[in-house]
Design goal:
Uracil-DNA Glycosylase, subunit E
Length: 202
């Protein structure tokens, strides 16, 4: 039986189809990462909604994330969660991941770039929060189709693609233990609030 074309379906059914496809693609990426990790490595998978509006990106996983195999598990995740709640951002509209997705195993730069590109393509976010200079340089090196190079200007909404914007912040993992670093991170991160407030409803 041939499925009905998307143009003839109600919007909620179209969304469900996109969601099922995104879940399948994220699961397939997880399987590919597990194979690449091998017996001695640990894949650290993205977490959150597979069709999120906001895509959180930091450079590499910390031990708590490696132990759980999940990005943004631990202190950084809790800090970001509280910050998003303060800004009124719906946590069900957020997805978080790392540029580097394997611990205890090596991947080529080309493989690492391709995995992140797949993740961005699947989630198709409206905003990417790029946390730290290493993450910014890594994302710029991905060469995502029709993307602009992101500048190091913190806390400014920048164009990434025709449908996705980006905000660069300091590295969350390096910002948790010193008051000045926390303030700098917050001053950049809070730019999500006005952006979210202007996001049109579905």
């Amino acid at each position: 039986m041939t499925p009905a074309p998307l143009s003839t379906l109600p919007s909620d059914e179209i969304y469900e189809r996109y969601l099922r496809r995104a879940i399948t693609e994220i699961n397939t990426l997880g399987d590919d990462l597990a194979r690449a990790a091998g017996a001695d490595g640990v894949p650290v998978l993205g977490s959150g909604h597979p069709l999120a509006d906001v895509f959180l990106l930091k450079f590499s996983p910390l031990p708590a994330e490696i132990n759980e195999g999940v990005a943004f598990f631990g202190r950084a995740g809790e800090a970001v969660k509280k910050s998003l709640q303060r800004l009124g951002v719906d946590l069900m509209s957020v997805y978080g991941t790392n540029c580097l997705k394997l611990a205890g195993a090596t991947a080529t730069e080309e493989e690492a770039h391709a995995w992140l590109a797949r993740e961005i393509h699947t989630v198709d976010p409206k905003l990417i929060i790029v946390m730290g200079e290493e993450a910014r340089q890594f994302l710029n090196a991905v060469g995502f189709p029709l993307s602009d190079q992101l500048d190091a200007r913190e806390g400014e909404v920048q164009r990434y693609t025709a449908t996705t914007q980006a905000i660069v912040t300091p590295d969350i993992d390096a910002s948790l233990d010193e008051a000045g670093a926390k303030t700098r991170f917050w001053n950049a991160f809070k730019a999500i609030g006005p952006w979210w407030a202007e996001l049109p409803p579905y």
